[in-house]
Fold this sequence. Notes:
- The structure holds two protein chains of two kinds.
- Chain A has helices spanning about 10-25, 25-30, 55-65, 85-95, 110-115, 130-145, 165-175, 190-200, 235-240, 280-285, 290-300, and strands spanning about 40-45, 70-75, 100-105, 120-125, 150-155, 180, 205, 220, 260.
- Chain A is globular.
- Chain A folds into two domains: about 5-130 and about 285-300, 3-Layer(aba) Sandwich (Rossmann fold), CATH 3.40.50.1370; about 130-285, 3-Layer(aba) Sandwich (Rossmann fold), CATH 3.40.50.1370.
- Helix content of chain A is about 35%, strand content about 15%.
- By secondary structure, chain A is α/β, with parallel strands linked by helices.
- Chain B is about 15% helix and about 35% strand.
- Chain B contains three helices and nine strands, in the order βαββαββββββα.
- Chain B has helices spanning about 25-30, 65-75, 145-150; strands at about 15-20, 40-50, 55-60, 80-85, 90-95, 100-105, 125-130, 135-140, 145.
Amino acid sequence: MGDVVTMDDLTNEEIISILDAAERLLPVAKGDVFLPLLEGKVLANMFFENSTRTRMSFESAMKRLGGSVLNFSSVGTSVAKGETLYDTMKMIEGYADVAAIRHSRQGAAQYSADAVDIPVLNAGDGAGNHPTQTLLDLFTIRQAHGSLEGLNVVLVGDLRYGRTVHSLSHALIRFGANLTLVSPATLKMPYEIVSDLRAQGAEVDETESLYDQIAAADVIYMTRIQKERFPDEDEYAKVAGIYKLSAPDLSGAKKGMTVMHPLPRVDEIDSSVDSTDHATYFQQAFNGIPTRMALLCRSLGVEIPKKVK
Amino acid sequence: MTGMRRVTAIRNGTVIDHIPAGHALRVIRMLRIDTSRSTPVSLVMNVPSDKLGRKDVLKIEDRELNQEELDRLALIAPAASIAIIRNHAVAEKLKVELAEDLINIASCSFSNCITENTYEPLPQRLRVISQDPLEVRCYYCGRGQNLEDLIENIL
Lengths: 309, 155
């Protein structure tokens, strides 16, 4: 029921309702108000692959709402002994009320959602999807620009293996944004996704050049070229460091243009950008808390008050 | 078929008519018909057809196709008509229908899909995205396959 594996699991109305709820929960996310809506509930953080922000923000979101968290890592557990994902999830179903799962294998979140009856939230499956990141990205864009419609959004970097941009592109098209995809030829968005976007009537421009896009952009969404997803180190070396933004590059940008990044960054965004008004990535990272709070409440069927005091 | 009969009538078994021309060998692979066994299989390829222009026909003796096999057939020959023959007469006529999901018919082609681990107990599940040209995608990981890939990955 409350599974969120891809953005297709949420209607536009549901997305808006989550973003609205996240907005109301901001004082709780900041720790100014304690609102124990999820007291007695347990989240299983099933991180079969490394994570910093996603795991910690899920944990913080749950705890800020009075719930508790079981943290799982595949190192030193039965998974290292060869346990199947199915068995691990069947076990956790007895221990928790909701699970967030990250796994290096694509499809692991849908597989888990089919294996168990508790709600499963996809916290990243290989190079597949990352819908909870998309929710916080949409929240951040809406916060900065007031709406999502008609915005020129430029997605940059590793569009092939980058799961955040896979989920985000789907959602942006649904809300009427214009997409430009910037990547080297070897890291283009998978054809399945581009063909889905075009089938929805979207005009999607694909290019290798970033700097030509800056002037018209409302949002530049940078991503890291992910070394760990390359089957071959030589292939990685060919494209590593290909796109870099520094403060002088942004001199021709629109005033309110926002630079986003799911983080961690390596060298895609120079630290000189941090002090510009364009830098939005740290705000974006914080926004993981209120959006995941809203999502956890939705999955557990807990209503969020219209006014949070 | 026009003019003289190209292969003899069978006593018991299955006749698959209206296979798209040139696809009969794929059908044999798709249905996992073991051609090394003694059961006679007759194959007619590229014969004129009012419906398809040209078509292939397959006659498999002493074997009646079941529903799962019909689902497989639908991937290659959605317009096929099937006759189950018993004692020289048509006992049943069947149509193929492409299911929405192909369960344990072919495997996902992606080496990093969760279903690659053969110990995982949930079935292989491919979703039909488009029938003509055929495109299926793994229900779990979303990786697409066309007909050529799919034939390689038949279980």
